Amino acid sequence: MITSGFTNAPVTKLLVFGIILTSFLATLTDTKYFFWIQVRPHLVEYAQFWRLLTWQVCYTNSTEVLFAAMSLYQLRIIERLWGTRKFASFLIATLPYTTLLPPILLATLIRPISGTYINYLPAGPTPILFALLAQYHAAIPYIYKYRLSSPVPATGSSEREYGLELTSKATSYLLPLQLAFSQLPGSAIAAGIGWIVGFAYRREVLPGAARWRVPSWVIGDTGQKERYASLRRRMEGEAGRATGIETQRQGEGARRRGMVGGLIDQFRGA
């Protein structure tokens, strides 16, 4: 059965509503200028290093909020595939990399190479979104392929098709690409680093990130695990009764107990 909405995706639901709410509050309180990063003057002159931890809290314009919310809604399939616990573990384990790597690389490597031309990093959790997009690209198979082309006559009477071959997943990348191209070049840097972090997580390159899991009580998974275990035991019992295996095992156990009991009685009588 195909589920819609945020069914079995509570963490994705929290992310979507969190992005919308924080961006709305930043606009309402007129504090959007506290979130983006300019290496100079924010880091070099003002020493506002707290921006390294807060720049992913919200987006600063409504277009990016819309594209990010719709992209995360499409990527809810990753949480359904992995389960809520692994999905939440992925977000927490990769958060230090997606938060610190973009501004640090911008300040220490990209800005000096560009001759101080690239100085700006836009606000918003674009690296987190592209780290999720890397998992979607690797884990979700496509259903069909199609080609955008027109027949071009080649040498001879036959025709050969030229063009771009796409898959059924191609449209899922359009909205994230809008985010990557929204405030060039800073948005593309954040998106590229997020994709690399997601790929490194999948290859288990990040130290300890791929195998770490949040405790079950954090997401309320303990009771659900017990219910699944009791359901499995009940189903196994019903299957055993239906096939006669359990009755046969009980009969064999009774026969074994009868033979042992007879031997004990013989020794007692002697």
From TrEMBL:
Does the keyword section mention Magnesium? no
The record's annotation in Gene3D superfamilies points to: Rhomboid-like
SUPFAM superfamilies linked to this entry: Rhomboid-like (SSF144091)
Which domain of life does this protein belong to? Eukaryota
Topological relation to the membrane, as annotated = Multi-pass membrane protein
What is the annotated signal peptide range for this record?
Answer: none
Task: Spell out where the chain crosses the membrane.
Answer: 53-75, 87-106, 126-144
GO cellular component terms, semicolon-separated:
membrane
Q: What is its main location?
A: membrane
UniProt KW keywords:
Membrane, Transmembrane, Transmembrane helix
Claim: Cell inner membrane is one of the keywords in the record: no
Q: Where in the cell is it found?
A: Membrane
Which terms does the record give in the GO molecular function aspect? serine-type endopeptidase activity
Any idea what this protein is called? Peptidase S54 rhomboid domain-containing protein
Q: Upper lineage ranks?
A: Eukaryota, Fungi, Dikarya, Ascomycota, Pezizomycotina
